[in-house]
Amino acid sequence: MAAIDYDKARALLNEDFSSAEAQLIGGIVPKVNTELVQHFDAIFSSRTQSYREVLLGCTVARILDKEIDIHLPYVSQGDNAFNARDLDEKVVNPFLQPRRVPSTKGPYLSTFRRQVKFEKSTRDGLRDKTGYDSLLFVIDYVATTQAEDKLQVFFHYRNYSGCKRSSRCS
What we know:
It is a single chain. The protein has helices at 6-25, 34-45, 50-64, 84-96, 129-144, 148-164. By secondary structure, it is mainly alpha-helical. The N and C termini lie far apart (39 Å). 35% of the residues are buried.
């Protein structure tokens, strides 16, 4: 199992969100691939709030440790799996709630069945299949992106999107 440094995760989120907030206020839109923007819009339009949390948690995990397989959110799923529930409870949810970014109040994995893997077969058990398809697209993008600068731009755009939809940043 890959271990995540929760203090580093918190610092990463706080620093980048502040930057995203400043860009939003200044009218500066981070540049990302147009296809990614469409998927971000679908995820942030979804009524399934946990998709946004999953995306944030997976992106943080990937930035902090490139060996993590972000498709595997339960430690029992292999050596490269990570503890997504702890990451959500200790970092992601406490980060989103005070910023009024639309998110769940419970663990994001509760939307999914036990031992879920972020893959196509999971789609069958979900209500918002379109939102999940977009989530899976961006998870696949993050999982296969090796370049640190591309991951940082992606992460920053994700935080910008969250800030844009937050009542705090509007």
